[in-house]
Amino acid sequence: MTCQEAIVLLSEYLERVCGPDLVQQLEEHLKDCAPCRAYLATFRKTRDLTRETGRVEMPDEMKARLRQLLLQQLRPTKD
User: Helices then strands (H, E): number in the chain?
Assistant: First the structure.
């Protein structure tokens, strides 16, 4: 397994949706690849911090401005 292949699988690996063969291949790669272990640690930390952050409510003024912009963009143009 290459580093690029390992990185593509990290999300699925952390969510535990990889099949046992892929898990074994990835763990074998991680055992011998310090850069991929570091990437996995960073990926895991980023995912955990993102989950802790939660959603932020959009201010009413911003909602109104966004709605107005979208309505302007969706209006049919006169040719």
Answer: 4, 0
